[in-house]
Amino acid sequence: MSDPLERYSRQMRFGGLGEEGQRRICDSRVTICGCGALGTVLANHLARAGVGFIRVVDRDFIETHNLQRQILFDETDVASNLPKAEAAARKMRLINSQITVEAVVTDIDHTNIIDLVSDVDLILDGTDNFETRYLINDAAVKLGKPWIFGGVIGSEGQSMTILPGKTPCLRCVVEDSPPPGMTPTCETAGVLGPAVSTIASFEAMEALKILSGKMDALNRDLIMVDLWSWSFRQLKISGLLGKVDCPSCQRREFDWLDGRMGSHTTTLCGRNAVQIATRRSDKLNFAELAAKLGTIGEVRHNAFMLRFETEGHEFTVFPDGRAIIKGTNDIAKAKTLYAQYLGS
Ligand SMILES: [Zn+2]
Fold first, then answer.
1. Of 36, 85, 245, 314, which is the most exposed, with the fewest CB atoms less than 10 Å away?
2. From ligand 1's centre to the CA of 277, what distance in Å?
């Protein structure tokens, strides 16, 4: 039998890690929240590096305009109507059969985040919105688990590593997110693949340090880069710890985790789409639903989602009852459409 560590020989040869570091990586567990641009790069790096258990959580399906930067996906995934988490997990298992990958197709919210992260060593940010990041921050601070923030827009990106109690948390640095519509999004400002890969690679490198136990090597600054204008900045933030009256890590008021902040039904960041996040206890029966909806036109479904178009809107429905309705940014209108076609 060949040595299972052999495939990591070039990684182990790096003095900072060594064989002991690799063994710890192989025994470690992570949750990647969001599997779009950042998440696919994270998933790719960590699967190849041999992280023993990787949970990939994402609420969305794959569209052709994702392929420019979401490196684990290809045109066959779009044609197969696969959710991102499922498509990513399939690729990761092909990349590395020695690891365990769990795909979770869901919207991360205050009711499920603890279950999604309590059994892992590290949480990684592959999301595209501050609402989910504050929720991750609350959960990580409450559980005392490290997490790594990353965000990208256009050619710019930021990243920071949060060790609860040892470094400032996200809310120490950015106390409140700007209101929706006030910040550029990937849809309004665009986003370039190399910027995404760079930030996700920063996150992945920090992850390898944490998982291998090399805490001294961690970056403790807020990293800000712009690959177009070629600027790299490191903002010293360590002095903020305990100096700001942070609701999360100082007062331990978990506004997002306790559900006081945040909403389930959201417009999806400039995509002309609304997510209706109803959650049912029983799974939808897609065959029955398709038969019922059949009168309005073609209804397609597989094990993961059901899709139909009507009145100029495309509905994508997930087994737990959640739906993404394209063709509107109006939450009230989307709720009406949902009630009309899917019941309340
Ligand atoms: Zn804080």
1. 245
2. 29
